[in-house]
Here is the input.
Amino acid sequence: MTTSRMPFSRRNILALGAMSTAGLAGSVLSYRSAFGTSLPERGSSRSFTPFSVPMPIPPVLRPHAVHGDTDLYRLAVRQAQVEILPGTTTPVLGYGGDFVGPTILASSGRKVGIVFDNSLDRATNVHLHGGHVAAASDGHPMDLIQPDGSKYYEYENRQQGATLWYHDHSHGTEAEHVYRGLSGFYLIQDPEEKHLRLPCGSYDVPIMLRDALFDDDANMVYGDPTQRPTVLVNGAHQPYFRVARRKYRLRFLNAATERRFALNLDGVPMTKIGSDGGLLASPVPVTEHDLSAGERVEFVIDFGQHPIGTQLLLADGTLPILRFDVVADSVDHSRLPDRLRALPPLPRPRVNREITLSFDMSGDPVGLVNGKPFDPARVDFRVRRGDTEIWNVSNGDGEHGFHHNFHLHLEQFEVLDRDGAPPWESDRGLKDTIYVPPGSSARLKTRFTDYLGKYVYHCHFLEHSAVGMMAQFEVVR
Here is the structure.
């Protein structure tokens, strides 16, 4: 696989994440000056006509067998050549050779078993982000699938309907592997949602957002995450999506390794109905929504309010990234109810914990959690099964320091407050990933319900976790 890249090491990691929500902004310390790199900053000199290609819809993976209460799948992890920029081919790493990976449709209460075959020349693994799964199938960063090896993952789907995603989590290489294409949607469909009559079928659309830097040969350049000017929507650059005059359920995922998006739709209200962990208690109208790396949000957008011929631009701040073209009338039997789903009550907490994310910049950048880099031989917290805990997550790099976000494996959490003030609008619902700005903190409440074993928590700016900003907890009896 020929790519334009630097060797993956601490020295070529940007340990900053200082990306503005409107696109590319100046970082606290530039990658170029910090590490003396000579990577291109403007990317490819090719020009492309915006909104000239349709938005791809990731294919749905079909089970190869059904055994009782389990749907069985097999999926190869392999190199591929795909068309991302029109008229060119780009080498990628892909699940099934796809960029984006195929969507897996699961059902609450029904198991999914997947064999991943590693056809790459490097080790990989798979993490179901947002999944409530047994430790053996969580994709622990040290639980690797070696080249020519296979691993069976089993997901019991004992959680409510939600927009999840699967991606590589091999420690030290997770950032580059995800950047090169190892990610895909995993949607849990919940029978309890059917009475709500939300848009479904072809009107329920997953949309993956991410960024990239391309050279003149259409290779993706892996380097400074703040110098990735091309935004991809389901693997296409500035596509259009034809819609009918009716309601759509749109599931957005930020699969970038560090970028944050500020989504807006020409000032048109978007009705937020879901977050990382599934449906909210009730719909919330918004005109803009911030989405940090790893987070998901679900909107219902009613294109029936617009005449045929209308074109609406979805933008990241001021940067247009997707155009919706209203092209036809449609009968719409879906609805947007006033109430969606009550959040599960959490018992009184038994334990309070402090978690601080920071960098040691005395030499090569080293990511730290509570002052320590990741060590798979060390268990940082032991939590009792059944306990409810409050975790106070702080960005320890100072008011003008590095940006971070936080992801907890195994369980969803509720955001109680930020720096003693009410949570943000983007914190509504059950979460597993949140943005933590410089010098700030957030209190999270979660309950460790049933599975035992070792899991991790980390910054989901993946260049940060790759150099150590990750720690390990163990659920015990």
User: Anything to note?
Assistant: Confidence is low (pLDDT under 50) at residues 1-41. Residues 1-340 form a domain with the Immunoglobulin-like fold (CATH 2.60.40.420). The first helix runs from residue 31 to 35. Helices lie at 31-35, 174-179, 462-466.
